[in-house]
Every structure is written in structure tokens, then in C-alpha cells.
């Protein structure tokens, strides 16, 4: 039974991955029910308004909601297929926290029927998809699951990790290749039928454990490579070498492609996922752990640099330019820029002028430190130290006459 009726789909978790995925399925004619525990998000989505910011999502969501192809609810309903796209953060000691997946399993279990497909999209440690199969079977002893009966199971279960880049989700979700790991082969094939509805990239089938590890490896690969660039930046600083010029020159070699140093690594993916590999096998993940530690140390390095400059001024006024975890997004999660601003504020290094054109208000932690949002031009004018933390497009064309008498700490190498 490889054929899957994809008439009705239930997407559990309407965040940065779940909502765009649900929207694209709906735009391709699938009847989609989106489920989230956040009542405000559900209400907003049902009015056709996304509660997250992602280019072009607002237009597409409005279209599919008004066409009646996507509806949001607090509770799952029976469907042909279920996609779980909930957060997988880590707990103390960098151990993966699978409680959101477990809660999603509890929520969908009562509405499962024989022939259903359940897909885990959340980035997960190795073994999580099989664990999901066990959790579901714990709630439904009347159905069979692939970890019990293999290819004969009533329910198919697969892992299909998301691989989209925030800021380009709607293009990448369609164009990127997908890896699908089934608990059995038939599980993988059923999942492929589902994603074929809109995926234009190639779909590669494997087992669930390999798919889980592939996703973690992609993000750990990037983390290790950014750590190499960040390590070089700290070495070059001491050696009085411009690291960006150095990297440009080294990258002229046909087999060298060093990434860009920055203030640290942020976001909810690259700064989190490598820990899932380390937690599973600490003895053998020395490089991956070290890369995490190098990247985590970078904000401290930036703070020390600013402190040194500030110590030479009578009244330091520091314009902190950018708060998001990377350029041209409003997402502040795990942002090294925020960590740096917090450390500067707590150390009372000087007056801080915070600029972030992509948000209307500062996060509560920064407000509690007495900080306020400033306008870019005014902050640059008033400050004697310019600390560039995010390479937003709107910061790039700064007037060099305004900057020339100020101390510049450019963590992104764009000025
Ligand atoms: N960064 C650097 N130097 C670089 C590149 C990035 O310092 O040369 C920093 C960024 O400023 C940011 C962090 O790294 O703080 C991560 O940014 P990113 O653009 O590399 O990645 P994310 O976190 O936005 O998305 C990643 C992507 N993974 C890979 O490129 C391997 C994306 O495809 C994944 O889907 C996403 O993680 C995810 O959800 O896992």
C-alpha cells in the first residue's frame, strides 16, 4: 500500500516551518488543517494574517485562507497525513528536549486511522522518529506501527527534515532537494508521494536514522566552518591582519572556501542542532563541540574589544547596530548581537544606543536593562563608537564622512 490519498493534511506546529509548509500545501490544492497550541496564532492565521514574518508569506496565506484551503485550530482532526513541525530545543547540559514532539504525538494519536502517514519535520536527534512511533503506539494499541510490524503496519512514519533558509523559505521549500527517512521503505515512499505535491527538487529516500543524522550534519558542517572563520578572525586581530582581506585572498585557491566571521552564531538551528550530535556521542564529537565553543566565545571577544576602546574615552556612547541573528530578518532568537548588547549594558561600558530597523520594540530582557530603540541616523550621529553587529542592507551605505572621526568595530566586515 504505497499509494497515499493526500486529500486532507494536518500540520501540527505553525511556526517558521509549519506555517509556510501548510500554506504551500494548501496553495497546491490540499485541504490543510493547521494546529497550534497558541490561540492568538490560530486566530491570526484564520484571518489570513501570519504571526511570523517571512517574505511573501502574508500574501500566500491570505490567498489560501480566503480560498478555504487552510484553516487553523487548537486541536487536530482526522486526516490522511500528519506533519509534525514543532520546536526541538535543548535542556540543561545540551540534551535534546523532545517534549513538544511527545505532546504532538499525544494530540494526534486519538484521531489516527489505519492508512495514515505521520511525518516528523522537526530537526531531531537520531532515534527520535522511531521514538515517535513508540509513543503513538503507546496511545493506540488498536493500530499497528512500523517499529512493531514493519511494512505491514497500519500507520506509516517517516522523518523529512526541513532544510529551508529563513528569509527564503517559500522559494527553498519548493526548490530544495529533500531527504526522506522512513521507519520502513514503504513509510519513506508514502512520504515521497506527499511531498511530490509541491517539491520540485529531487527527493532522496533513506532510513529515518540516516535522515535525522543528515540534517544534524548539515547544520554542524556550517557551524564548524563558521567556527574556523571566527577562530581566524580572533587570531588575525592579534596579528594585526584584516581577516576579510585574508579570507578573500585564501578563497582564490580553487579548493578553499572559508566562510565569513561575525559576532557569533545565532538562530534556532545552527547554534542548537550540533549539540544533538554531541549529546549522543560526546567522546567522538570533539570537533563539533569545539566549534560550538569557539562560536559561543565570539560575543565575549567582541565585548572585550569594545570595552578596550571605551576605556580610552571620557564619555563613551556606543551605537549598537542590529540585533537580529543575521542580516535582513527580524528574528532575534539566540542572537549573538543581543548577547553582546546585554553584556555591554551589564558591564556599564557606556551609553548604549540600540538600532534594529526590523523590530518595533526591544525584547523584555533589554527593556529591563533600561535600553531603548534608537533611530539609525541619530545613533550614528551621537555615538563615538559604532558597533556594527548585523549587516542589514540598510546599514551598508553609511556616509563615510560621518564615520571617519568615530571608532568603528565592524563585526561583519562590511564597511
Ligand atoms: N553566519 C556567519 N558566517 C557565515 C554564515 C553565517 O557568522 O559565513 C552566521 C549568521 O550570521 C547567523 C548564523 O551563522 O548568526 C546562522 O545563519 P545561516 O544563514 O548560516 O543559517 P540559518 O540558521 O538561518 O539556517 C540554517 C540553514 N542551514 C544550512 O545552511 C546548513 C538552513 O538551510 C536550515 O534549514 C536551517 O539552518 C534550519 O532550520 O535548520
Structural class by helix and strand composition: alpha/beta
Rg (CA only): 23 Å
Termini distance? Answer: 59 Å
What coarse outline follows from CA principal-axis ratios? globular
Helix percent band: 40-55%
Averaged pLDDT, please?
96
By DSSP, the count of extended strands is: 12
Ligands: ligand SAJ
Runs in which pLDDT lies below 50 for 5 or more consecutive residues are: none
How is the largest sheet built, in terms of strand order? 3-2-1-4-5-6-7-8
Strand content: 5-15%
Order of helix and strand elements from N to C terminus? EHEHHEEHEHHEHEHEHHHHEHEHHEHHE
* Number of continuous helical runs: 17
Biggest sheet features? 8 strands, mixed
Polypeptide structure, described:
By secondary structure, the chain is an alpha/beta fold. The chain is 42% helix and 13% strand. It contains 17 helices and twelve strands. Helix 4 runs parallel beside helix 5. The longest helix is centred in the middle third of the chain and has 32 residues, at 208-239. The chain is globular and about 75 Å long. The mean pLDDT is 96. Bound molecules: ligand SAJ. Ligand SAJ is lined by residues 123, 162-166, 218-219, 222, 226, 259-260, 262, 265-267, 269-270, 325-326.
Amino acid at each position: 500500500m504505497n499509494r497515499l490519498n493526500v486529500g486532507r493534511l494536518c500540520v501540527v506546529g505553525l511556526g517558521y516551518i509549519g506555517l509556510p509548509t501548510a500554506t504551500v500545501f494548501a496553495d497546491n490544492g490540499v485541504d490543510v488543517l493547521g494546529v497550534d497550541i497558541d490561540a492568538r496564532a490560530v486566530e491570526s492565521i484564520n484571518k489570513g494574517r501570519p504571526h511570523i514574518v517571512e517574505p511573501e508569506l502574508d500574501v500566500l496565506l491570505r490567498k489560501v485562507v480566503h480560498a478555504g484551503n487552510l484553516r487553523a485550530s487548537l486541536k487536530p482532526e482526522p486526516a490522511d497525513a500528519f506533519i509534525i513541525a514543532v520546536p526541538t530545543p535543548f535542556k540543561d547540559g545540551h540534551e535534546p528536549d523532545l517534549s513538544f514532539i511527545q505532546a504532538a504525538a499525544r494530540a494526534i494519536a486519538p484521531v489516527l486511522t489505519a492508512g495514515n502517514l505521520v511525518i516528523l519535520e522537526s530537526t531531531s536527534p537520531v532515534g527520535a522518529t522511531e521514538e515517535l512511533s513508540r509513543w503513538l503506539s503507546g496511545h493506540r494499541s488498536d493500530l499497528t506501527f512500523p517499529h512493531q510490524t514493519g511494512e505491514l503496519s497500519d500507520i506509516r512514519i517517516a522523518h523529512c527534515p526541513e532544510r529551508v533558509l529563513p528569509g527564503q523559505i517559500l522559494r527553498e521549500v519548493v526548490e530544495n532537494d529533500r531527504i526522506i527517512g522512513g521507519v520502513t521503505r514503504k513509510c519513506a515512499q508514502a512520504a515521497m508521494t506527499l511531498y511530490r505535491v509541491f517539491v520540485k527538487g529531487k527527493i532522496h529516500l533513506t532510513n529515518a536514522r540516516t535522515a535525522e543524522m543528515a540534517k544534524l550534519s548539515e547544520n554542524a558542517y556550517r557551524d564548524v566552518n563558521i567556527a574556523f572563520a571566527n577562530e581566524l578572525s580572533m587570531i588575525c586581530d592579534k596579528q594585526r591582519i584584516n581577516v576579510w582581506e585574508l579570507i578573500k585572498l585564501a578563497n582564490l585557491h580553487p579548493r578553499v572556501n572559508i566562510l565569513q566571521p561575525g559576532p557569533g552564531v545565532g538562530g534556532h538551528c545552527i547554534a542548537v542542532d550540533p549539540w544533538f550530535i554531541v549529546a549522543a556521542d560526546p567522546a567522538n564529537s570533539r570537533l563539533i563541540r569545539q566549534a560550538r565553543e569557539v562560536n559561543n566565545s565570539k560575543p565575549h571577544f567582541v565585548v572585550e574589544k569594545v570595552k578596550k576602546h571605551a576605556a580610552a574615552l571620557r564619555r563613551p556612547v556606543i551605537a549598537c547596530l542590529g540585533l537580529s541573528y543575521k542580516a535582513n530578518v527580524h528574528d532575534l532568537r539566540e542572537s549573538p548581537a543581543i548577547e553582546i548588547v546585554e553584556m555591554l549594558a551589564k558591564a556599564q561600558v557606556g551609553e548604549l544606543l540600540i538600532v534594529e530597523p526590523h523590530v518595533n520594540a526591544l525584547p523584555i530582557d533589554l527593556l529591563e536593562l533600561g535600553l531603548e530603540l534608537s533611530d539609525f541616523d541619530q545613533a550614528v550621529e551621537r555615538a563615538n563608537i559604532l558597533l556594527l553587529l548585523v549587516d542589514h542592507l540598510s546599514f551598508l551605505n553609511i556616509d563615510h564622512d560621518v564615520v571617519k572621526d568615530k571608532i568603528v568595530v565592524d563585526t561583519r566586515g562590511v564597511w
